[in-house]
Amino acid sequence: MTSIRRRTAAVGTILGAVASLGFAQVKPAPVLQSAATPASPAAAALVSAVAPTFILKVTPQHVASLTAKDTKASEIGKGLTQELKVPVKMSALVANQNINLKMSQVPVERVLLSLAPQVYIDYQLAWDTPETWVGVELTGFNEREPRTPVEPRAFIVLAGSTEDENVTAETIANDQATRDEEKLSKEPPKEVPVLDVAVKNGLVSIRARKQMAAAVLLEVASKAGMGFETRGDLDQSIIDVDVRSMPIEQLPAALARSGFALLMRRNLATGGTRGVAVLLGSEASKVKKTPVPAPK
Question: What phi, psi does 137 have (nearest 5°)?
């Protein structure tokens, strides 16, 4: 027993000498946590914070699949922006929602309507290209409709008595459209340049003779209360056109001109569409999109 005590004391003396020389004592190696050992609550929270909470896939044909669990709508919006290659914007009310959803192989429009009650799709139409989306806006029930990518530039001066409560901007516009239609019903003199346009209830009628294509389309924009945007060189060809009561979205196909396209807006909640702007010029059919931010 005495011998053991002496050896222990000797070891203690040696360790003390090592410490006095400035050498750090060797600490035991940390025990590595095995896969079977449960992680600490803090580590689990960190993994949960970085793990994706949704899976989204959209095909080029706009067929979508989405699985989301307690996911902020804003995060799904970022995913849709990357998949669709167009900006998908949300109001603050929509963006802050938590989404729990599972949809498989459905039109992407159904996914959009599952995220918000009001969905607006801006798209472009040209005679030689299919419908091309430019942007998507999502809002709540009672929120104002977002601004369109191109705003109307023209204005209408309304003159007359304001004492009649039945006279509104809408009734005045309808009366003007009726007068325009009556003018179209009368045959103009032969061989005289003519430009008559009427737009009512989303239908456009045009009688143009010996007119520049750009002048005809600018008159359509003005009568329809639409904006216009020029892209490149304007089409200065002289054309003759005679169409009656045509849905405005069919106009690009009817004219079949590369220097003309339409910007449209579709309300998914109501199914309605309306013309937003006439696009004119050699670059009109090239879709102008807001740049999509790169994923972080």
Answer: -125, 135
Residue 181 and residue 205 in contact, taking contact as beta carbons nearer than 8 Å:
yes
What backbone phi and psi angles, to 5 degrees, belong to 259? -90, 25
Distance between CA atoms of 226 and 278, rounded to whole angstroms? 7
- In this prediction the pTM is 0.73
Q: What 3-state DSSP class applies to 146?
A: coil
Alpha-carbon separation of residue 282 from 51, 62, 213, 260, 285 (angstroms): 47, 29, 12, 8, 8
Q: What is the CA radius of gyration of the chain?
A: 34
Would you call 62 helix, strand, or coil by DSSP? coil
What H or E segment, with its residue span, contains residue 3?
helix 2-20
**pLDDT per residue of the chain (296 residues) written in tens, 0 to 9:** 444 444 444 444 443 443 443 333 333 433 333 333 455 655 555 444 555 689 999 999 999 999 999 999 999 999 999 999 999 999 999 999 999 999 999 999 999 999 999 999 999 999 988 899 999 999 999 999 999 998 876 444 444 455 566 655 565 666 667 777 777 777 777 778 999 999 988 899 999 999 999 999 999 999 999 999 998 888 888 999 999 999 999 999 999 888 899 999 999 999 999 999 999 988 887 766 555 555 45
Cα–Cα distance for residue pair 245/2, rounded to 1 Å: 117
Cα–Cα distance for residue pair 18/12, rounded to 1 Å = 10
What tokens appear for 15 in the block?
A: 């360790």
- 214 phi/psi in degrees, rounded to 5: -65, -40
Q: Rounded distance, CA 295 to CA 247, Å?
A: 40
**Which amino acid makes up residue 57?**
K
Read off φ and ψ for residue 35, nearest 5 degrees.
Answer: -65, -25
